[in-house]
Amino acid sequence: MKLVLVLMLFLIVPKSFSQQKNLDYYLEKAQKNSPLLADYNGQIKAASLDSLLVRSGYKPQVAATLNASYAPVINGYGYDTAISNGQSVTGLVGINQRILGKNQINSEAETFKIIKESLTLNKKIALKDLNKSITAQYITAWGTAVQIDYNKKITDLLNEENSILKKLTQNSVYRQTDYLIFNTTVKQQEFVSLQLHQQYQNDLALLDYLCGENSTDTAQLQTPEIALLDQGNGEKIFLNQFENDSLKIQNSNRLIDNNYKPSLSVMADAGYNSSFIYQGYKNVGGSVGLGLTIPIYDGDKRSLQYQKNEAALQTVNAYKSNFQRQYKQQLNMLNQKIEQSDQTASALKSQFIIGEALVNADKKLLLSGDVQITEYIIALSNLITIQNGITQNTVNRLQLLNEINYWKSNK
Question: How far apart are the first and last CA of the chain?
Answer without folding.
Answer: 52
